[in-house]
């Protein structure tokens, strides 16, 4: 019962003080980490192929050489349609730490998150652009359009990647 009260109190206010993001195009992850002014946080992938949402509280721990955030009361929102292979879901647990490396990056579960002033940044578009650039460099534009866009257009390739088509491809990365 106490966890539910904490969860509701964290979710009620969304005055974001800091926002960070991490994109892993080949795992189809677009993860956003938000620190909320009242010691709450949310970490989510709400537009990617493997959606999730964690919320909880954090405590800032300062030491001589480094600072970190201690995440506490981490609650994962369970949605019936959000059942994915474990290797595709971003791992979070109670008592995880967020290491503050510098103003330009933090580490969560060994992944580098970058700050942004725009909490509405379109991470899905960035992920798709990264994938298209990678495949065009590796295979050439004509081959990418042929294999991933049914020979029609690069726009169809982008659309399919937005719709999580990557897992259906049999292309060696």
Description:
The structure is a single chain. With 173 residues, the protein is of the alpha+beta class. It has four helices and eight strands. It folds into two domains: 2-118; 125-168, no CATH class. The protein has helices spanning 2-12, 123-139, 141-148, 154-162, and strands spanning 16-24, 29-36, 40-45, 52-62, 67-76, 97-102, 105-108, 111-116. A hairpin with a 4-residue loop joins β1 and β2 (29-36). α2 packs across α3 (141-148) and α3 packs across α4 (154-162).
Write a short abstract of this structure.
With 173 residues, this protein is α+β, with helices and mostly antiparallel strands. The chain is built from four helices and eight strands, in the order H-E-E-E-E-E-E-E-E-H-H-H.
**Cα separation of the termini:** 46 Å
Return Rg in Å: 18 Å
Pattern of helices and strands: HEEEEEEEEHHH
Structural class, by secondary structure, is alpha+beta
Our count of helices gives 4
Mean pLDDT across all amino acids? 78
Number of separate domains: 2
Q: Summarize the amount of helix as a percent range.
A: 25-40%
Number of E strands: 8
Strand content: 25-35%
Poorly predicted runs of 5 or more residues: 1-8
In the sheet with the most strands, the strands line up as 1-2-3-4-5-6-7-8
In one word, what is the shape? Answer: elongated
Main β-sheet: number of strands, strand sense, barrel status? Answer: 8 strands, antiparallel, barrel
């Amino acid at each position: 019962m106490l966890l539910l009260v904490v969860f509701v109190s964290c979710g009620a206010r969304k005055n974001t003080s800091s926002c960070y993001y991490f994109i892993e195009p080949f795992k189809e992850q677009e993860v956003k980490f938000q620190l909320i002014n009242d010691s709450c946080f949310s970490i989510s992938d709400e537009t990617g192929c493997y959606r999730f949402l964690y919320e909880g509280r954090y405590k800032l721990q300062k030491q001589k050489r480094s600072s970190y955030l201690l995440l506490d009361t981490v609650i994962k929102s369970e949605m019936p349609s959000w059942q994915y292979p474990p290797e595709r879901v971003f791992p979070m647990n109670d008592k995880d730490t967020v290491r503050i490396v510098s103003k330009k990056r933090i580490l969560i579960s060994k992944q580098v998150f970058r700050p942004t002033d725009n909490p509405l940044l379109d991470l899905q578009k960035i992920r798709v652009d990264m994938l298209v650039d990678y495949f065009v460099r590796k295979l050439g534009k004509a081959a990418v359009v042929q294999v991933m866009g049914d020979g029609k257009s690069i726009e169809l390739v982008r659309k399919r990647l937005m719709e999580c088509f990557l897992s259906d491809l049999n292309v060696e990365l």
